[in-house]
Amino acid sequence: MARHNVFGNQGELLARKYLEEKGYEILDENWRFRKAEIDLIAYRNPIIVFVEVKARENNRFAEPEDFVSKAKQKLLALAAGEYIHLMNHQNEVRFDIITILFNKFGDPVIRHTEDAFWP
Q: Which CATH number is associated with domain 3-113?
C-alpha cells in the first residue's frame, strides 16, 4: 500500500476514535455517491456531521485542510444532499474537517474544525 494511503487510513481511524470520544455516533465511513466520498458521517443530536479527514506526515507544502478544494467541497455537498435525502434527515447538518499531522516522534496531532465550510 502506498505511504499516503497508510496515512489516510490511519488518519480516518484516529478521527473516528476522536469523534467517538467526543460523544459522536459514527453513522457511516467512506460513504460514496457518484464521484464523491465522505470519509466519516457522524451524528450528535440533532446534527449530522459530514467529516473530511486529512492526514499528513508533515505540513511542509501546506496545511492539510488546504487540500479540501472548492471542487471537493461541492462533491461533498452533492453526496451529503443524497445522504440527507435517503435518511430523511430534517435537522441541521454541518461540514467539518479533521486534520491529523504526525509530529517528529510519530505521534498524531489532531485538529478538528467544526463548520469548516458551507458549499
A: 3.40.1350.10
